[in-house]
Amino acid sequence: MIALQVAREHAGSRLDRFLASELAAFSRARLQTLIREGFVLLNGKPPRPRDVVRTGDLVELTEPAIEKIDAEPEEMALEVLFEDDDLLVLNKPAGLVMHPGAGHQQHTLVNALLAHCRNLSGIGGRERPGIVHRLDKETSGCLVVAKNDSTHRDLAKQFAARTMGKIYLALVAGIPRKSAGTVDAAIARHPVQRQRMSIARRQGRPALTEYRVLRAGADMSLLECTLHSGRTHQIRVHLHHLGHPVLGDKLYGGKRAGTFPRQMLHAWKLAFTHPRTGTAMAFEAPVPPDFAEAMQLIPGNA
Fold this sequence. Notes:
By secondary structure, this protein is of the alpha+beta class. It is built from 6 helices and 14 strands. It has helices at 15-22, 28-36, 109-116, 149-160, 234-242, 289-295; strands spanning 2-5, 40-42, 58-61, 80-83, 87-92, 140-146, 165-173, 180-184, 187-189, 197-199, 208-216, 220-227, 265-273, 280-284. The strands form 3 sheets. Strands 4, 5, 6, 7, 8, 11, 12, 13 and 14 form a 9-stranded mixed beta sheet that branches. A 3-stranded antiparallel beta sheet has the order 1-3-2. The longest helix is centred in the middle third of the chain and has 12 residues, at 149-160.
């Protein structure tokens, strides 16, 4: 059982948000499910995800037994950058959905992982075994997968502590006014269009993206983006806010998305400390052919 006492700085927060801030190994959606299913107590009583916590409140979470995985193994080609008994690092192709869900019960990364690995961590629940972090369906690049729960917890803590290095390449519309800069703007679910995220004026989660122009052409640029947090759609939302949406991004790019068949975003580099050995590890995912071809549209260097 995990017991947490609410500190003053968290007073007034929703219960699910408080738990998400304290328990990096669990996604907020997973925590909401655990609350609804009775695995969380607030001052000894079953709460709702939206209940507000107060200073000194006691929150207790009892982890359920690992559920039987529903997804079926599928033999699929995986580009493995590294693998040992604790984890594996992949170069995820664009177009591959991360895990089973509505409309995607098969042909997901989880299906492929179940065929590739004998063991995967169970913290993500029966639909998301091994999944420590996610990439959008259309985003390619580096992804780390946990094979056991202790590895999953450690990697999740590194994500939460912002000690994991995450660098992306993004092809964007236009040329940023500054050749380098940061976007420091909180992100929250869009109040009306629920499939979108947006810059939050209040009650959003802090998000910081650092960018640098690598190459620039007449109407598009190649950016290197370093994530200092890991919010849903963070780079896409921040670059849209900057006025330079990711090319091919149908959700945030609008008319400026252009005619690219998918969003031009690639998780280029990933660095972390190996949970068991303590070794510093760094990986680089080769740029896929469609991204490399699009880069050729930008002549010269910035």
